[in-house]
TrEMBL record:
PROSITE patterns: CADHERIN_1, CADHERIN_2. Residues 37-142, 166-254, 255-362, 369-472, 473-576 form the Cadherin domain. SUPFAM superfamilies: Cadherin-like (SSF49313). Its main location: membrane. Gene3D superfamilies: Cadherins. GO terms for cellular component: plasma membrane. This is Protocadherin. InterPro entries: Cadherin-like_dom, Cadherin-like_sf, Cadherin_CS, Cadherin_N, Protocadherin/Cadherin-CA. It is a single-pass type I membrane protein. It comes from the Eukaryota. It comes from Octopus vulgaris (Common octopus). The keyword Signal applies.
Length: 646
């Protein structure tokens, strides 16, 4: 009959619970939204709706929802992994593998920075945390399929032998959590004990429940089952052969539980970073120790450090990077050469102190980019509006890595978000017609000695808004034209100006209150001409108003007065008003003592000015001796004394 011995570690469960609580609190304080996504999903997998979940649309009217856009800010760790649509939908850009992204981590996540704006106006930057959920696609594996343990028959109850633990490459908390159980017969005097090593892996030991009798039985065959906590779970099996003889029973012991070493980044490669030391109470091969990196040590660290297997010396293989991680975590295992080999693991922390001082690096992300180094803003932009996100990189330590940034402008200001994050905001309103382009310079200085600075220059272009009303060059335009001319006869030009660009500066002219009898017309460009021939005698002055409007949205307009005076042509003959009939007879009684005036002739002319100036003249020559007419007054009178025979 087989007996199953379970060894779930309740302390490990509590650690998982504490970690989850810590993760929850961390998420609440540092990010705006959090989403999960399973690893190994195909590219384009939908993760979540940032627009809906952030509730940003709740404060905007439904007809303005399409003005809200979302843009992912460029980041080295996330730009290639995720894709965000303009409407705020979050998708994967490639297949995600939690094991390669977060090797040996209990949680795998990435944080995305998303800029949100409404039309040309920035709203905020959202920090989105995406947790890549591990799929239980790896089973626990032992380093070997079978091991052989040797017990001395003189060993009493409680004597224990170490056995290798299993490794699960999954990164999920439950998927990588391994529990062990020992399969054996009821009468076999062995049990399994499990404890935790410093690197979080399990330390496994097979111990005796009672003293062995080699003469009764000299060998046993057990199975150790390692099962992960995934659903469904996966398991691996280690076959254990136990021989009853005298064997290696002391593991190597390190001189320290944790090694913590600090070195300068100028450390010479030929000099060891530190020397690890472990001892083994056994003799011979059982007490000879070899050192090697534990499976918990990342490949990046293994490629950066070299371990002398015999002496325990640690060397750095490359020049210490100034702008990368300056803290290294190494798990080193000391194993003796006994059969079976016993081992111990120690944690080595290497802290690299950067003594170099490099100038800060400045990265600028525009909310609305016109081109690579130019931002675009509307001239209607409000004070306090967000223009650009500025991040500063300075990985120096101490004062060398403390940075302050400054922007000098009467229109724009730099507001600090965190120690190395800023945003460029509107300080005052702008007017494109006054100034259309601004050259901006951000200067960042560290606090090193000497202080190093970096200057980042870029331009901000003001985009035109139809805010200037067209303006006529005169309030009143006066023109002279002639009567009796054909249609389309030119009268004159009127002119207006508009400082706006594009459609806002394109002008069209109209005559206000024009009816079908109105004799003038105007082109879109302000040219006034006649529709038909004019008659000054009917109307000599025309007064009307002209409207000019631009093609912007909304359209702006202005009006001006136009006066057209019709010039006279001599196109009307004079006519007599007295006498009013032709011929006309007049009886005159002459008396020598009377005046010579007979009557006053009256005439008129519908023309004006010199064309209406009349002169009277007698056409009958034979009557000139008897009668005369005043050429200017029209007075008809006797020219001489009248005789009876006249």
């Amino acid at each position: 009959m087989l007996q199953l011995i379970n060894s779930a570690d309740t302390r490990g469960n509590m650690l998982v619970l504490v970690y989850i609580l810590h993760l929850f609190l961390h998420t609440c304080m540092c990010v705006d939204l959090a989403y999960p996504v399973q690893e190994e999903k195909s590219p384009g997998t939908y993760i979540g709706d940032i627009a809906a979940d952030s509730q940003l649309l709740n404060s905007v009217s439904s007809q303005d929802h399409n003005l809200i856009t979302f843009n992912q800010l460029s980041q080295k760790e996330t730009s290639q992994l995720f894709n965000i649509s303009k409407s705020g939908k979050l998708f994967t850009s490639q297949k995600l593998d939690a094991e390669s992204l977060c090797s040996y981590s209990t949680e795998c996540s990435r944080t995305i920075k998303v800029a949100v704006k409404q039309a040309e106006t920035f709203i905020k930057i959202l920090k989105i945390k995406v947790t890549i959920e591990d799929v239980n696609d790896h089973q626990p594996e032992f380093p070997v399929k079978q091991i052989k343990l040797i017990f001395d028959e003189s060993h009493g109850k409680g004597t224990a032998k170490s056995i290798p633990n299993a490794v699960d490459e999954d990164v999920g908390i439950m998927n990588s959590k391994i529990s062990y159980r020992l399969k054996k017969h009821d009468n076999e005097p062995f049990r399994l004990s499990v404890s935790k090593k410093v690197d979080g892996t399990s330390k496994l030991r097979i111990s005796l429940d009672e003293k062995l009798d080699r003469e009764s039985k000299d060998s046993y065959f057990l199975q150790l089952v390692a099962e992960d906590g995934g659903f469904p779970s996966q398991h691996g099996i280690l076959n254990i052969e136990i021989s009853v003889i005298d064997v290696n029973d002391n593991p190597p012991i390190f001189s320290k539980d944790i090694y913590n070493v600090s070195i300068k980044n100028t450390h010479h490669r030929a000099s060891p970073v530190t020397v690890l030391s472990a001892t083994d109470l056994d003799s011979g091969d059982n007490g000879r120790i070899i050192y090697h990196f534990s499976s918990k040590t990342s490949e990046i660290v293994k490629n950066s450090f070299q371990l002398n297997n015999v002496t325990g010396e640690i060397f750095f293989l490359n020049v210490f990077p100034v702008t990368q991680t300056r803290k290294y975590k190494l798990f080193v295992e000391a194993t003796d050469r006994g059969t079976p080999p016993l081992s111990s693991i120690v944690l080595l922390l290497v802290n690299v102190i950067n003594q170099q001082n490099r100038a800060p690096e400045i990265d600028v992300n525009f909310v609305s980019a016109l081109k690579k180094n130019t931002a675009a803003i509307s001239e209607r932009i409000k004070v306090g509006s967000f223009i650009a996100y500025v991040s500063v990189i300075d990985n120096d330590v101490g004062l060398n890595g403390e940075v302050t940034c400054d922007l000098k402008s009467d229109k724009f200001q730099l507001l600090k978000i965190s120690s190395k994050e800023y945003k460029v905001l509107m300080k005052n309103t702008v007017d494109r017609e006054t100034e259309s382009n601004y050259n901006i310079s951000i200067i960042c200085r560290d606090k090193g000695s000497p202080a190093l600075k970096t200057e980042r220059k870029f331009s901000i272009q003001v985009m035109d808004v139809n805010d200037v009303q067209p303006k006529f060059t005169k309030d009143t335009f006066k023109f002279l034209t002639y009567e009796n001319e054909k249609s389309n006869f030119p009268v004159g030009f009127i002119n207006a100006t508009d400082l706006d660009l594009g459609n806002g500066g394109q002008l069209t002219y109209f005559i206000i209150d024009r009816n079908n009898m109105f004799p003038f017309q105007i082109t879109d460009y302000g040219f006034i001409s006649t529709i038909r021939s004019l008659d000054r005698e009917r109307r000599d002055i025309y007064k009307f108003r002209v409207l000019v409007k631009d093609n912007g949205t909304p359209s702006l307009n202005s009006t001006a007065n136009v006066i057209v005076e019709v010039m006279d042509e001599n196109d009307n003959a004079p006519y007599f008003t007295f006498p009013s009939v032709n011929p006309f007879s007049l009886d005159v009684h002459y008396h020598p003592q009377s005046k010579n005036d007979i009557t006053v002739l009256r005439a008129s002319d519908r023309d004006s000015r010199e064309n209406a100036f009349l002169k009277y003249e007698m056409l009958d020559r034979k009557n000139h001796q008897l009668f005369t007419v005043n050429p200017y007054t029209g007075v008809l009178s006797f020219a001489r004394k009248v005789y009876q025979n006249d």
